[in-house]
Amino acid sequence: MTDKAHILSRAFEDRIFVGVAAAVALAAVVVALFPGLSGYRVNIAGQLACFALLALSLDLIWGYAGILSLGHGLFFAIGGYVIGMHLLEHAVATTGVTPDIVQFMGWKALPDWWGPLESFPVALVAALGVSFAVAFVFGWVSFRSRVGGVYFAIITQALVYVAMLLMFRNDTGFGGNNGMTGFQTIFGAPFQTPGVAKGLAATSLLVLFAALVACRLLMIGRFGRLLVATRDDETRLRSLGYETLRLKLGVWCLSAVLAAIAGLLYVPQVGIINPRVLSPELSLEIAVWCAIGGRGRLAGAVIGAVLVNAIKFSLSATMPELWPFVLAGLVILVALIFPNGLLDIGRWRPTWISRPDVLQPGDAKP
Amino acid sequence: MTRFIRKAAAIVLAIAFMAAPALALDRAAIVAQACGGPGSMTEAAAALTAGVATASKDDAAWAATLSGAAIERTLKCGSPPVIAAPAGARDAATLAPATSADGTSPLLSLKNRPLFETARAAATLFSGVTQGERGAALSALERRAGSLPPELFEKAADAETDVGLKERILGVGQAALLNSPDVSKRISAIERISVSADRRSLTQVAGLKTDPAYATDQAFKAAVDAGVASIERRLQISNALNTLYNGLSFASILFMASAGLAIIFGLMGVINLAQGEFIMIGAYVTYAVQEVLRAAAPDLLDWYLIVAIPIVFLATAGVGVFLEATLVRRLYTRPLMTLLATWAVSLLIVNLVRVGVGTQNLQFVTPSWMSGGHLLMGDFIVTWNRLFAIVFAAATLVLTWVVLKRTPLGLNIRAVTQNRAMAGCLGIATRRVDMMAFGLGSGLAGLAGLALCPIYNVNPQMGSNFIVDSFMVVVLGGVGTLAGTVIASLGVGQINVLIEPLYGAVAAKVIVLLMIIAFLQWRPDGLFAVKGRRK
Amino acid sequence: MTVAILVEALTVEFGRFRAIDDLSLAIDYGEVRAVIGPNGAGKTTLLDVISGVSRAKTGRILFDEKLELTRASEAQIARSGVRRKFQKPSVFEALTVRDNVEIGLGGAIDAVARERVDKTLETVGLAAEAGRLAGELAHGQKQWLEIAMVVVSEPKVLMLDEPVAGLTDEETERTSALIRALKSPERAVIVVEHDMDFVETVADRVTVLHEGRTLFEGSMARARADARVVDVYLGR
Amino acid sequence: MSKFDRRSFLMTTAGLAAGAALPLAAPPLIRSARAAGPVKLGCLFSSSGTMANLEGRMNFVAKMAADEINAAGGVNGSTIEVVTSDPASDWPLYAQIGRQMLAETKVAALFGCWTSVSRKSVLPVVEQNDGLLFYPLHFEGDENSKNVVYVNSPPASSVLPAVDYLMSPDGVEAKRFFMIGSDYVWPRTINKQLKGYWKSKGIEESAWKEEYVPFSFSNFQTIVNQIRAFADAPGGKCVVVLTVVGSSIPDFMREFANQGISSSDVPVLGLDMVEADLEGLDTAKMVGHLNCWAYLQQAKGDANVKFLKSWSDYVTKTGAPFKKDVAIDPMVSTYDAVHLWAMAAKKAGSFDVPEVRKAFDGLSFDCPSGYKIGMTAENNYVSRGVFIGSVNETQGFDVLWQSPDTPKPVPMSQY
Q: What residues form the membrane-spanning segments (chain A) (predicted)?
């Protein structure tokens, strides 16, 4: 892509990044220590952190390696489902209450093989392991046969759609359309305990902060530069002796694991996991968040996710009719005026609308 | 089913026996019964069916009118009971003009509805004015022939003037004798039934294996076995035809939904996520055409689908051109941004339609020529609306092919698809070609919407159902080849229909999508890739 | 002396189109070989197959008389010392000039490596631009940057696809000086180019390809005199 | 980090940090309504997404009921204000908005959800906040939360009577059953209970067949072929128990009619089928198919006349984008729900949930269905009448059968 506009001054980028990271850290402190916050707000902050983490994970592969996944909801869902299974097992173990899912699935008890997930470390390892394994297998096969660009996007979309159809089936055995709900306790504490919401939200914000810093360090290092090189010209990089398959696979798996962590943190805060998170629309929306904030800057993904979801939360309750128009307008606006996201505002000159592009052979790259 | 029919038949026969001596129908009594509770309505229907064979032609006509009125709820049980008609109410018993048209209409219970339908058909068989009417009545009776008195058909055949129809009536009468005490009549009934074989007749004929004669009478046994074998063979063929037809009809929908996408994607490498919404717009424009015709030229209403074709194409192509000129054109170097922008456009269109028109399913008049279907053989039904979609898809395919191969625009499109830079150097206005191609692709999507009107629900959400499927078809076929899209649609449609009865609809979809994903790992460029140097 | 690149009975097809048809040729260490021919002769395809971007249908290519390039991946080929500059300048535009060259060098960046990068930048005349983003460079500078990315790793076989396309006369002059400087007994240089004057200044020998086959092999002066070559270039 | 102006860096950082933290500390967007002034009721019905056509109209019915109550002087000296939202057919968003309405808007009760899954996602929210959710749909039963009022019927008190009718001599003496449903908990639970019921009646397992399709499935060709084959097989009269939902209903009915099957051949009992599903269909070929609800538009009685007129007037007045001459059961259930809540609040003299809940015992209301619906202290279920409707030519349902009284609701099925 001969997209010079993509290149921001580094100083500006650094400033934005530090600002966003500081804001996340500050929010974590406020959520954890400020007593006057309503549970609702705490919960919103925690959810926004999860969405931001999810957007961050997509930014790693789309923004840096130029691989657009329209199926990232799959990894988010893996994290969510595993923690859901853990919470159900945990609820049975601590309260003895039979969850709804047992009854409407027509079971006698939760399936035996869920048993080990009662331990949180096992669940954590399982969530990360499964998302890693799925990402590895799919990524290895796809990258090896050099499926890329728009094709990769379409195939990942089909993949998440397949997963959604599967999970909607009752016979698949994860609660079908209802999914899992009715979680009672977490780490032994009932969900109603005021500290639980705060703890979850603060943890999410801290994990987001840690992920931001870690990804930043990784991306300004050699690995990050090689990823950018892959995005700019993969053939060139390969003919310089780099196995781009490994690079892409590495960042793809990393991104999948981050998305799974986001799901892991998200589900206890909303109290339900069902196949809806596997809908192609959600996965598309993750890309929208990144695009609105600005790709390939980490901070942009966080800003985009927080902005879009905060607007969504407030508008869908106060002006439900308006919300879809606002979102559509925002995306079109960004696509036309800030081709690289709202972070471009810093260097925006009033040309109003970008001029028509001229397509060159070989330009068909993200 | 059979037990129910037998019971009904028993009642019919019993009453037929009682009513046999009377040559005229006791109109007043029957009307009173028809205005009674469910039980007495059953008796009214039985009396009508039993009586028509011996009644006068006038009485038979009255019986047809009365049972029709009961079915259509134009029978008003006031005092006296009348039949409401647009020309004015008539007395239910005498059919003389009546003054009042008050009274409630009894609602046919599930059980009584088929009885009255039978009564109406039997009466029409005797009193129908045209041969067509009587033929239709006979077809209606065919399925329930076993529950009717055999002499009904004999009498009807006697009275029938048309030789062909007379033959048919006798045939049906023969088939009705499957449970006749006379073995030879049973055998001829078996032979008769085995000719027009469907699953119901298999049940009937196979049921004769429990007949005592099956064990004793060799000829009867042979007839039953031969009948069963012949029906089973025909069923196998008709099942295969059904599967083919279903697959073809699904494939035609897939093709319609993805043809436009294939052109746009192939030419510009642009993913148009608003393609489904173009389909939706096409359907809404079709609706608008229908409403305009309804107001302006009601005579043409039956042909609104045909009238709408050019209008729908031009309207959606116009929207496509507008979208290309205002948005897509500015994003050509960033295909993934186009993806998001067109997604936003689709969101916008859906919500504009939702707010502007509403969320309800649109009501389409089903044209008389497209309603229902025709039982071709055995269990194989050709439904007209699906046939319309298949024919429409085939016509679209031919026309698109002609446009691409035989017109200057098509030549330009192919040139730009293959080498944009070179085409530009040769003086082709690539920008203009892009716009026209985008218009063509959008117009095709609009036509898909039109073809879907008689099959699917038309509402603002309908477009989203097609996105994943149509993308997979385009990618599987190989970008930029119409032939690939056709083959991929046919393959996906057929495989889906083959798997569905085995593992269910969800699993079929899942398996097909996974197969496509796996196939694309093996051949990332699809079935019919335009090969060239790797960039 | 061993042969650097040995092409044996190579055939490459794209669909029904045969880009290279039963081609055999040998390129020695120490020489600068130019591959010329009209459009569609198979020049770039030849480089593609040697560097592993495209796959051969039949035949094989041996590097250093040991490594069979037709079986190796692009990265393996590059790491073994066969490197290539593309027709269209391919640099990583979102990275700095220095980053680009460091990626070309590969491995850990220590003091020795840094020095080598500096020296290479010096050679191609981009030392002053080291901190700029590659996307901001002029066309000619991008060409040199790409050459720098390729040569910094001291390749044994260096392939240059149209290194002076779109350059001014002065830039072309500098480029040919650069290529002459890169000539070494341990290295084979393959140049694909249309500019005949340029080819004459840098090449030891030329191979003329036509419709995927070798039409002529020898010095540039003799090529200019060869009737068949003239025919192919001018006859149609 | 390269060179840049230190002061502008600090300012940007501080600005962004404050921007992120501000929403957490800022005053609520929607002010608390706990003080005097109107009492708020929240609606959780989607006006966009797949459920929009069905759920959207409920927002207006709730407002209409509130207007009626306000016109009669309000409740406990307050007028009612109905707060609507758009969960966009997105299940987690129901929970999200529910939480917001309870915690921030401080609504006195929630009215909402159509699909079971949306209810299940709101359930933990109302339980954690001790709120009240009035759920206006018939559902799979087997749930009994003190925070949910189940305004409509569980299967044991609605579906089983309808199936009984089909199996009786008054019906068609059905012996065999083809169950086709959307693949989720409501159809599966209904079918599970039906199978248990049939087993208890000594019906063989070979007499039924079950198929499930995904949500918004539309290509029913193959399945209708299967139904034809199943119906023609020996063993007695076959009926179809249809539990597909949403847009699959009209798609199924159209294909069924097109393949030439009429209600006199194989009747369909559409358990989720309402008038709105028939919009746009040529119902002349579907006459006689059945549905089963606690209200049908053709119900007799003054209460229904009054309700239909109010709805028609309301649509005319507000320009709501729905048909003014179509009323479906969940609309009436929502209408009932608002009135039941108002009666309970009046009886309790308070809007506090525990007080209101205590007042449920012995409430009764003249439902537009013509029955006097009622609640007991036993559970939060409402006892209602049962109708079996029969499709007519004009895209509506005629009342074919109705229960003599209001059967006592059975939350937990025995099957």
A: 16-38, 44-62, 120-143, 150-168, 200-224, 245-266, 322-342
Asked if residue B415 and residue B276 are part of one domain, the reply reads: yes
Between CA D74 and CA D68 the distance in angstroms is 9
CB distance B532–C14 less than 8 Å?
yes
pLDDT for residue B322: 94
Boundary (domain end) residue, out of B127, B151, B171:
B127
Range with lowest mean pLDDT among A58-72, B8-22, B318-332: B8-22
**Between A and B, how many CB-CB pairs are < 8 A?**
151
Chain C residues 71-90 with a CB less than 8 Å from chain A: 73-75, 77-79, 83-84, 86, 88, 90
Looking at the fold, whether D16 and D147 belong to one and the same domain comes out as yes
Same domain membership, residue B116 and residue B257: no
Asked if residue B336 belongs to a domain, the reply is yes
Query: Which of B137, B140, B221, B210 is closest to B187 using CA atoms?
Result: B221
* Domain span holding position B3: 1-127
Which tops the pLDDT comparison, B193 or B513? B513
Is D317 within a domain? yes
pLDDT on residue D171: 83
Please enumerate in sequence order all residues whose Cβ is within 8 A of that of D45, keeping only pairs 6 or more positions apart, or say none.
D55, D56, D58, D59, D84, D85, D87, D111, D112, D113, D114
Chain D residue with minimum CA distance to B115: D264
Q: Which CATH number fits domain C3-234: 3.40.50.300, 3.30.70.600, 3.30.2290.10, 3.40.50.970?
A: 3.40.50.300
Q: Is pLDDT larger for residue B487 or for residue B370? A: B487
Per-residue pLDDT of A313-323, as tens digits, reads 888 777 777 88
D412 assigned to some structural domain: no
Sorted by where each begins, the domain ranges of chain C are 3-234
Nearest to D49 by CA among A323, A273, A153, A156: A323
Distances (CA, A) of A56 to A22, A64, A255: 16, 11, 8
User: Which of C53, C79, C100 lies at the smallest CB-CB distance from A241?
Assistant: C79
Q: How far apart are CA A78 and CA A11, in angstroms?
A: 38
Task: Give the count of domains, chain D.
Answer: 2
Alpha carbon distances (Å) from B490 to B245, B446, B483: 11, 21, 11
> ipTM score of the complex?
0.83
DSSP calls for B115-168: HHHHHHHHHHHHH-SSHHHHHHHHHHHHTTGGGS-HHHHHHHHHH---HHHHHH
Which chain B residues are Cβ-neighbours of D211 within 8 angstroms?
A: 504-505
Domains in chain B: how many in total?
2
The pLDDT assigned to A52 comes to: 97
Asked if residue B379 is part of any domain, the answer here is: yes
User: What gap in Å lies between CA B273 and CA B265, rounded to an integer?
Assistant: 11
State whether D288 and D329 are in the same domain.
Answer: no
Domain span at residue D328 reads 6-152+301-384
A206 vs A109, more confident: A206
Q: Which domain holds residue A91?
A: 2-347
State the chains in contact with B (3 or more Cβ–Cβ pairs under 8 Å): A, C, D
Q: Are D24 and D68 part of one and the same domain?
A: yes
- D94-134 pLDDT, tens per residue? 888 898 899 888 999 999 999 888 898 898 889 888 999 99
Q: How many domains is chain A built from? A: 1
Please tell me the predicted confidence (pLDDT) of residue B143: 76
Helix (H) / strand (E) containing A253: helix A244-270
The tens digit of pLDDT for each residue in B361-400 reads 787 877 888 878 888 877 788 989 899 999 999 999 999 9
pLDDT digits (tens, 9 = 90+) for B400-454: 999 988 888 888 888 887 777 778 888 888 888 889 989 999 999 999 999 988 8
Q: What residues 316-335 of chain B have any CB closer than 8 A to a CB of chain A?
A: 327, 329-335
Q: Is there a single domain that holds both residue B245 and residue B106?
A: no
CA of A40 vs chain D CAs: smallest distance (Å): 6
Q: Which residues from B are below 8 Å from D52, CB to CB?
A: 354, 359, 460-461
CA distance D292 to chain A (A): 23
